[in-house]
Amino acid sequence: MNTSLLLSLADRTAALAVPSAMHPDVWQLGERLDAWARGRGLVLGDPDTTPLGRARCERLAARLFPEAEPDRVELFARWLTWTFALDDTLDQATVSGSATAVQAVCDDLLRAIRRGHASPGARPLESTLVELWQDTAAGMSRDWRRRFLGHLEDHRRGCSEQAVFRRTRQMPTPEEYPALRRRAAGPFLYDLMEPVLGVELPPRPLALPAWQTLLEDTADVITWSNDLASYGREAVLGDVHNHVIVMAAAHGVDPSQSMRRVAERIAALADRLRESAETLRGTVDRLGLAEHDREAANQVIGVLLNAPRAHIDWLSESGRYSPPEGSSAGPSGHVGLRLDGLASLR
Fold it and tell me: What is the E.C. number (predicted)?
């Protein structure tokens, strides 16, 4: 993985120029997360041999929430670990090209949440989800729980759509790609900002079109940045769900030119994102919300605004998209076939 383009992009884009802060307890968080992932059976053997083991999810959580309570940051890191584990499962050769198989995996998980316990003999992915859900949802309202589950279902739909594209070898168009990418990139993770911060958003800000625009623009900057980092792996695996690959096919350009085009789109969107966030803050202030509701909205807006740079910083230190030690990598970032055959989450 080559992150030099991303770091250069961040340095020359005003909205991305300030490096993200880091939670002071990040090292302890990492030790606890590693023990948890191993104890739950999500990471097996030497962690350096798998994309999940190399991900360092605690560092992304610690950058997103540098001032939150450590146990809440750890909870988010656990959700990230589970999400990447789900992604690796859905990217297995026996699943990735079958919408039916993808839906079966996701339906089992959704049923486990709704009945409140894992099925007998459940795999770690299912039992861990039930545990995380119980630890997260207890302090949240019915409306929040319904919203989270709706986004989990959106994720299932997005992953199923990806499976159809993979099976048919069809390339999404540049117009289709952003929404498809967002749905398959864990949209429920954005709902988790609230329990981590110890707040819950009232309905009125969530109903604003400007709020949805901010969420979508944030997700686009993050996922497109991720596509630059993961391009080499996904190109080797023949996966079409990468912005670089989609743009190269649509415009008939080589990968390096396509990377530059994607980087330019990220820069423009990041600048727009900052303007949108400031406009949204003003709109929220005029809603006449109670002080604690207005503060909750502004806290979440702040995390959304800082998330793209936090993600870029994490990409530069995570091994999720890098080949395991001993694998070869070409000059353009293409990794050799000694990779474990799993594409990564976004």
Answer: 4.2.3.-
The total number of structural domains in the chain stands at 1
CA nearest to 74, candidates 82, 342, 185: 82
pTM: 0.92
Other CB atoms within 10 A of residue 213 CB: 15
Q: What is the pLDDT of residues 83-123, one digit of tens each?
A: 999 999 998 888 988 999 999 999 999 999 999 999 999 99
Q: Quick check: 108 and 126 in contact, CB under 8 A?
A: yes
Chain centroid offset of residue 114 CA: 23
Query: Is position 346 within any domain?
Result: no
48 is written with which tokens?
């350096």
Is 81 within 8 Å of 33 (Cβ atoms)?
yes
List the domain range (segments joined by +) for residue 265.
Answer: 4-317
Q: How does DSSP classify residue 98? A: -
User: Which pLDDT tens digit goes with each residue over 283-321?
Assistant: 999 999 999 999 999 999 999 999 999 999 999 999 998
Q: Does residue 141 lie in a domain region?
A: yes
Question: For residue 339, is it within any domain?
Answer: no
Q: Is 204 helix (H, G, I), strand (E, B) or coil?
A: helix
The CATH number of the domain holding residue 175 is: 1.10.600.10
Structure tokens at 344: 């990564």
